[in-house]
Amino acid sequence: MFEASVYTHRRNALRSLLKNGIIFLPGNTEAPMNYPANTYHFRQDSNFLYFFGLTQPDLAGIIDLDNGTDILFGNNFGIEDIIWMGPQPTMEERAALVGVESTHPMDELKNYIAETLAKGRQVHFIPPYRAETQLWLSSLLGIRPSFLKNYASPQLIRAIVSLREIKDEIEIIEIERMVDVAHMMHTTAMQMAHPGITEQEIFGRMEGIALSKAHGTSFPIILSVNGQTLHNHSHGNVLTQGRLMVSDAGCESADGYCSDITRTIPVGGKFSQKQKDIYQIVLAANETAIEESQPGVFYRDVHLKAALMISAGLRDLGLMKGNVEDAVAAGAHALFFPHGLGHQMGLDVHDMEGLGENFVGYDEEVHRSSQFGLAYLRMAKRLKPGHVITVEPGIYFIPALIQQWKEQNLHAEFIDYAQVEKYLDFGGIRIEDDILITPDGCRILGKPIPKSVADVETEVSRGL
After folding, report:
1. What is the pLDDT along the chain (464 residues), one digit of tens a residue?
2. pTM of the model
3. Could you give the CA distance from residue 17 to residue 23 in angstroms, rounded to a whole number?
4. Which residues make Cβ contacts (< 8 Å) with residue 269, sequence separation at least 6?
5. Burial 185-199 (b: 16+ CB within 10 A, else e)
6. Are the beta carbons of 59 and 28 closer than 8 angstroms?
7. Residue 225: which residues within 8 A CB-CB, separation 6 or more?
8. If we measure between CA atoms, which residue out of 207, 209, 206, 212 comes closest to residue 192?
9. In sequence order, which residues have a C-beta less than 8 Å from that of residue 61 and are 6 or more positions away?
10. SS3 per-residue string spanning 336-389
11. What's the CA gap between 126 and 360, in Å, rounded?
């Protein structure tokens, strides 16, 4: 938790961006796994965390725009709770930690909201993403759960995005600490990537590092020799010599700040020439995209630059053909690179995605494309100093997609399907770094994680 003044400043900054009414920010509740007392690891709502800083369940925050006051609703713990959990701070003590002077029991929230609505004051809220929060908001506001998204405040959403997307120094420090833990996770995966090891063993070791050195993973670890499946959470394969293993993983701090790194690793420690050729194309796209990421540049243009480099590299290998600019304009490259270059990152690994991707990654200057591949770009707008962005180009050989496009004779003027079919068992390659946009360019966050061919091969050999 940061100092109380940080949260007071954030709430005042938010207050300055909206005119009247109240801002209602519900925290999360516990979520049971298989019976009420056996719960998943608790994760606080990121917007509540950003403005009110408390990581306990069953809290709600109010920012009163008219009266200039902040209120926390929540209950003090009773003796039955203390028996199981030990002594706990009072609500007043918790509130003081984040600069809030006024607290009320949770059962007073319903009347508070009802009185606010009765006076004709606006209640600004953001779209809920958990079912229990939807039901709670529905009962408090008198809005059917299915209509809550329609009544969410676009003014509040835009204001939160404008604040949260610009990271200050204390946030960057937290993110870099998590990238450094991710360094341990990924170098451990490299050192374990040898024939006979199961994906599950590597997955378990990586998750253990995240739990022992941080506050757990920032998303379920993606680790598979079937890297052609973009988000592969199955870990049942045994590693065999010559396969490629994609490792996409990060962790988060106690305050919720994330890392998100991907590396692709040759099982046994040596890339084949075929693998090296594809890997070098992805690496060049990654490094060029990082160089191109500067203030004032549309991230969509950086994405398209990476797509051009991938298309040019695949043309040099004979998998694509024709004019690469025309191929990218037509979307032919998406057979191999079907996702966006990256996304914002911070308190959420896909930062603020719960507010709506179009509010976070797009604005009045740039709108989402409907083209396959480009439509999946989460971040397209102009880069600003303080943005933290992932840069994660990839090349994948997805048999079902290749078969579909071939049967449709799709983009045949740009794709040599006879050559592509020689790669059906290749898998996929993705390389991802986390970068900070600075006033004069950008920098990669955290301790450098091996990504050149030589450095990855050397790291794998350390596990022998």
Report:
1. 999 999 999 999 999 999 899 999 999 999 999 999 899 999 999 999 999 999 999 999 999 999 999 999 999 988 888 888 899 999 999 999 999 999 999 999 999 999 999 999 999 999 999 999 999 999 999 999 999 999 999 999 999 999 999 999 999 999 999 999 999 999 999 999 999 999 999 999 999 999 999 999 999 999 999 999 999 999 999 999 999 999 999 999 999 999 999 999 999 999 999 999 999 999 999 999 999 999 999 999 999 999 999 999 999 999 999 999 999 999 999 999 999 999 999 999 999 999 999 999 999 999 999 999 999 999 999 999 999 999 999 999 999 999 999 999 999 999 999 999 999 999 999 999 999 999 999 999 999 999 999 999 999 999 87
2. 0.95
3. 11
4. 193, 194, 457, 460, 461, 464
5. bbbbbbbbbbeebeb
6. no
7. 199, 237, 239, 240, 243, 244, 245, 246, 267, 427
8. 206
9. 24, 25, 26, 27, 48, 51, 52, 70, 71, 72, 73, 100
10. CCCCCCCCECCCCCCCCHHHCHHHHHCCCCCCCCCCCCHHHCCCCCECCCCCEE
11. 13
CA distances from 169 to 2, 3, 205, 269, 447 (A): 12, 14, 31, 38, 17
Both structure tokens of 56? 């306990």
Tokens linked to 277: 């050729």
Whole-number Å distance between alpha carbons of 32 and 41: 9
CA 347 vs CA 22, 256, 292, 340: distances in Å: 24, 5, 25, 20
CB 381 within 8 A of CB 415: no
Provide the CA 286 distance to its chain's centre, in angstroms. 18
For residue 6, which amino acid is it? V
- Which of 197, 240, 279 is CA-nearest to residue 456? 279
> Could you give the domains of the chain?
4-164 (3.40.350.10), 169-461 (3.90.230.10)
Q: Which amino acid is at 99?
A: G
Task: Give the distance, in angstroms, between the CA of residue 220 and the centroid of all CA atoms in the same chain.
Answer: 11
